[in-house]
Amino acid sequence: MIKSELIDQLAEANPHLYHRDVERVVNTILDGITDALARGERVELRGFGAFSVRHRPARVGRNPRTGESVAVKEKHVPFFKTGKELRERVDASRESNPEIA
């Protein structure tokens, strides 16, 4: 599912809301999460999961085409850890519907 499909699904489930309002809400939530991560904060959505920022130290990588060593700078990357309820729900859906796997 992509963002536009999520917005469409939410708009269908809430016919009393305009599509543009649903889109604005989704964008506001995602922007809030993004802004918090940019500030180095952790965002926790109980039962769903937690977004955080992890530090990746500088390292020596390899150019896959030439095999040449390449210096990779340190960086901070977003990280998501699933919540217990989400993990259990996904696992249960896989068990009840094996063709998804």
Q: Could you report the average pLDDT, rounded to the nearest whole number? A: 94
Under CATH at level 1, the class stands as Few Secondary Structures
Domains (count): 1
Percent helix, as a range, is 40-55%
Summarize the structure.
By secondary structure, this protein is an alpha+beta fold. It has helices at 3-13, 19-38, 84-96; strands spanning 43-45, 49-56, 59-62, 69-72, 75-82. This is Integration host factor subunit beta.
Give a structural overview:
The protein has 101 residues and is α+β, with helices and mostly antiparallel strands. The chain has one domain: IHF-like DNA-binding proteins (HU Protein, Chain A, Irregular). Helices cover 44% and strands 27% of the residues. It is built from three helices and five strands, in the order H-H-E-E-E-E-E-H. The strands form two sheets. Strands 1-2-5 form a three-stranded antiparallel sheet. A two-stranded antiparallel ribbon has the order 3-4. Strand 3 and strand 4 form a beta hairpin. Helix 1 packs across helix 2. The mean pLDDT is 94.
